[in-house]
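Usage

Read records sequentially. Each one opens with the input sequence:
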Amino acid sequence: MLEDLSIKNFALIDSVNIEFNKGFTVLSGETGAGKSILIGALSFLLGGKASVDQIRSGCQEASVTGTFLLPPHNQLDDIPLSDEDAEPRTARQWLSVHGIDQEDERVIIRRYVRDNGKTAAWISGTPVTRADLQSFCFFLVDIHGQHEHQSLMKVTEHRKFLDSYAGITAKVAEFTDLYSKLVEKRKTLAAMNTSDKEKNQKIEMLSFAVKEIEDAKLKNDEDVELEAEQAKLSSFEKLYTEIENISGLLSGNDGSGIVELCKKLRGSSEKACNLDSSLKEIDSRIENVFYEMSDLSEEVKSYSRTLVFDPERLAFVQDRLSLIYNLKKKYASNINAPLKEVFAYFEKAQNELEALANSSANIEKLSKEVSELEKVVYKAAKELSLKRMEASTKMASNVEAILSTLGMKGTKFAVSIQEKPGTEVVQKCGPYGLDNIEFLISANPGSPLLPLAKIASGGELSRVMLALKTVFASSDGVPTMIFDEIDTGIGGEVAVSVGSHIKKLAKSRQIFCITHLASIAVYADNQIKIQKGVNNDMTSTSVTPIEGDARVAEIARMLSGDATSSESLEHARSMLEKFA
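and closes with the structure output:
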């Protein structure tokens, strides 16, 4: 549910901060007041197209921020995804997959566009791409009309809606997991069922790799140690020269070495301390320095005696490193990869060799497992198909009944359920069962049933959406719906029926509706008036919740264009008392 919206410098809107309530909310105002701007701002927030044209004149950035209450927790949230590529089924699952936290059951979404064309978006403080924003907001809001997010127009979604209506969504999710296991077993079996020639070639290749790595007698982190040794041996002359310089500076033969100087310094310090006891601490420190320098001098001399250039060792180290680099080139991701990748390949190759050695027994066992699992999957898929067929007839009847009250009498609606094409031997199945599902409709008596996407009229499309959403009210998980142009081409009793239906639908979700018709607006739980005015020579759009006398006046204006006459006000008041 959308709880609040903050819009800054978007089109004609200077700054708007508005809170929203549950139920049915009507957006009204005179033609050109900017009702569609509010929906445009929300569409932008949900991942719609961004353009510098959306920025208010004279400003550098347009931004929209909204707070959304997440849908209630349901059983789909707890069904784990079958693999890494599986799409999240709910808003909560989407957040979990993307590592985004929600606080107090809410998320804050923010998006901006700047005059240089740059856009950015965040979900609860985490930066997201536009594609990610759209995929997440798909679970939160449906916008119907001339906007995006028309989930019912996507054929891929029809199966989800039918399954939800039939109450089998959880069973389908379980089936998908079962089907994924079958696919993996089939892949494994196909890999094992290679020809003898291919199998022997693979055995030969793996055996060579295992022997080559085994013969190398590698040690953990050997490459790191050898590289360090090579660096030392390759720079022997420079290293020896510097060590000799250090040794000379510490203990020079002419008495100028640091150790000799510290010795003289210590003697003078000791004498001075005998003359003034307050110098005792200084004398102690000088003494420590002398001993430290003496120890350091001996260590450097000892290290110097170990420096013996060994060209044979250098050649061995270089040859060994060359062997290791060659093994990495063959069996690791690259020559700079850690040596553990070669060890990992060695272990994997050994396992594959063992599996190939026992392939006949393994193939027979796996073939039996695949055959048994295929029967289980097919049986489960047929059960899903039966449930879908039963639900589709009832759903079609309900949709047609609602459409007849929405000014579309005679409209035919059907759910096409076709088995996926197969052969006489193998029945094709997919991750969701045996069925290809699509909604069909005939908006005019005598016309053939056509895909839902073929509906051209905005008014017809909105009413079909309204009918479907009414039918799906108990199963559809999208908590917020927006109807734009719901009143196109209707009036009178049809408009009253549309308003009544939206009122019923809003008992289980939040609904926003732009309308010019008072006979729809009077059913709303909340009403927001959108006005356009001029302030400081700048045109701007204001968004104001109205109630009481203000709402009566707005309904009167919608009825007759006159918000002040006693007749219009009385008519408006009586309609609100009757329908609100």
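Summary fields computed downstream for this record:
- The chain has a mean pLDDT of 85.
- The radius of gyration is 39 Å.
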